[in-house]
Amino acid sequence: MRARAEIVRxxxxxxxxxxxxxxxxPQLTRTPIPExxxxxxxxxxxxxxRAAGIAEPERLFLLPSPEYHLKQLLAQGSGSLxxxxxxxxxxxxxxPHHNPEFTMLEYYTVEADARDSMEITTSLLEAxxxxxxxxxxxMQEAWERWTGVDLEATLSGEEGEIGRxxxxxxERRNLSVVVRPDExxxxxxxxxxxxxxxxxxxxxxxxxLTQYPAAIPTLARTVPDTPWSDRWExxxxxxxxxxxxxxxxxxxxxxxxAETQARKKxxxxxxxxxxxxEFLQPPSVLPRCSGVALGVDRLVMHLxxxxxxxxxxxxxxx
Length: 318
Prior knowledge:
Elements: H1 2-17, E1 21-22, E2 28-29, E3 41-45, E4 48-49, E5 53-54, E6 58-62, H2 67-75, E7 81-88, E8 101-110, H3 114-127, E9 135-138, H4 139-146, H5 159-172, H6 185-197, E10 207-210, E11 231-236, E12 239-246, H7 251-268, H8 277-280, E13 289-295, H9 296-304
Parallel strand pairs: 1-7, 9-10
Antiparallel strand pairs: 2-6, 3-6, 4-5, 7-8, 8-13, 10-11, 11-12, 12-13
Helix pairs in contact: 5-6
């Protein structure tokens, strides 16, 4: 654990030296932001009211990331900031790379895009002891190399049409993926990516996988006149460790994204929660900025050459 503590110390020193604000945000909330693919942990706040006696329990939720509160600080004029905090995600697969409670580093750089964040993250990796230069690979290049699919050629048109195009490519390339009736494009894309692309990502060096399709709904801005979002993910030892967005700033697009996510979550989630009205109708505009969410436990795994997350957490749940 001394080695882990030294890595975390270097992370803090890296951002402190560059003038980032060290933020502290809550881990409990009444109204989480809606993320359709993330299940939450819920708990009850048992309190008393001096006038009425024992109050009804109030439902609270453990946060899966500090994103929402950090963005509130950014909108209030905080400038570039970072936080190292514990985050919680329910209903994820148990195994050597997951723990329901994990350590998250999240950092936002103002007047920056995803390219700027890539350079900052490369410097961060060097600061914590990574000595192999990273490889940059676009999603287009990765798909052509490992599936033979010209991804960009499939991405024009409405969602139904791009889904049919991708399904035809699966059949034409004889990919070992069964296309399900009425399957949404995003689901088919993710299944092909997880089965044919991600396993081939080099493990001997850091890899920045860039230019994700804008058809994947996220809060990353779309690169003008392209089908790509301003986004990358960082892979270390073949594991996805960080996710970066050049952040969307248009309140209308943010609200539309949140509404869609909330609707999907209502249909599929097992742990329901109230909607955050301020997130659905954002009152403030973010500054131009780029944000990165990085899993500290997986970073430590990579740097120490460990194969399981349990080896780098003092008291893993599993």
